[in-house]
Design goal:
By secondary structure, the chain is of the alpha/beta class. Helices cover about 40% and strands about 15% of the residues. It contains ten helices and 13 strands. The strands form four sheets. A seven-stranded parallel β-sheet has the order 3-2-1-4-5-6-11, sandwiched between helices. The radius of gyration is 19 Å and the shape is globular. The model has no long low-confidence stretch (mean pLDDT about 95).
Amino acid sequence: MKILVTGCAGFIGMHTCLRLLGRGDEVVGVDNLNDYYDVRLKEDRLEQLRAFDRFRFERLDIADQAAMEGLFARGGFLGVINLAAQPGVRYSLKNPHAYIQSNIVGFTNVLEGCRHHKVGHLVFASSSSVYGANTAMPFSVHQNVDHPVSLYAATKKSNELMAHTYSHLYGLPATGLRFFTAYGPWGRPDMSPSLFTSAILEGRPIDVFNHGKMQRDFTYIDDIVEGVIRVLDKPAVADPSFDCANPDPARSYAPYRLFNIGNHEPVELMTFIETIETAVGKTAEKNMLPMQDGDVVATYADTDDLRRAVGFAPLTPLKDGVGKFVGWFKAYYGKRGV
């Protein structure tokens, strides 16, 4: 297949492209290579993809309407995986306009491209952040998620609503994936695995928010990508049993659906730190801090729907995933002399 992957120089984007290329698909990747974090890391990810003849890269911003119209006009894409977004909960408190441009305007351009060029399936990244103030665990796609606690979360919830509208109006098959704390080799430097590992290696204290009383459903990157690919290969279809008098948020009379992709095994933050300490071989100095605005205490994914739909749910043990990440981190940044 010929697949468009937006955000191809990102963490999940690079790994997704590699999996598609490895199975023989033709991939067109787009990214604006912004400086939200280390551009060198993004460029090095791209180098992994350029080793394939079936990969073509176009540097553009999905918020650029004319550029996106041109991309789709010459594309001929059978599927689209939208992973481009302005990430980060805390950054959304400081620079809200970046989230509107990328996550709302940019996603509109993706939807319009899919609509006008008859794309067979749109798979798009949502986030566990949409669960917001919910405290019922585990988080289920069948729960109401109308109480976001950050603008980032609000834009991701908006993406789900926008995609459903296009499925309803134009019959566009669309599947939203709520990712739960992805980690692994080539991970983002602004995320806790990289921040903790870097600080421990350099002997700096790590910031531990809410005094460590937090849980995250850490999900290894290979599991994330396996879920993405399996979902891509099974386009959303209308649910004939959908009850409009008792609507289920995860189902629809339109060809639209939602899934969680998480490890279904929440980990205490202090346990996660201890796992990194063991892999690094050093103990961290900890700077205990209060909860940050926009953050949530716990995430925990119910993955039953994903398992039923595509026969897969993430299972990589934390120890194995962290070990692989720390090994990559030492090799990559050691080679760069960082």
